[in-house]
Design goal:
Layout lengths: L2 H6 L4 H10 L8 H10 L10 H9 L12 H18 L3 H13 L5
Helix pairs in contact: 2-3, 4-6
């Protein structure tokens, strides 16, 4: 099976990422890594929530404290918060997480 072909079969972006993160034949991908992979191959609408972005969300008052994103539920909850914040500012969430990451790391990799 070609992964790209399989990913293109999904019409729902959440189902696409769920499949990638939960597929038993693909080892080592959680929601952050699945989001990163999907964005790198051209899909949009996924937040890459690493420690830098999560810390920025705390500083912005979006969440009370950093938390481990070790479940689908937690990841999607924080992604929803970031999406709502980004939309309120008129900024694409895909760009917002990159900006927050860049501020924290001092790097821009796009």
């Amino acid at each position: 099976m070609r992964i790209r072909e399989k990913l293109n079969e999904f019409f729902d972006p959440m189902e696409r990422r769920d499949w990638l993160a939960q597929e038993r034949g693909i080892k080592g991908l959680g929601y952050k890594e699945a989001s990163h992979f999907l964005r790198n191959i051209g899909f949009k609408g996924y937040a890459i929530l690493d420690k830098h972005v999560v810390r920025s969300m705390v500083e912005l008052g979006l969440i009370k404290e950093p938390c481990l994103l070790n479940s689908r539920t937690k990841y999607l909850k924080l992604e929803e918060i970031l999406r709502d914040f980004s939309e309120g500012l008129g900024i694409d969430m895909d760009e917002m997480d990159l900006v927050l990451w860049s501020i924290k790391t001092g790097e821009v990799l796009k």
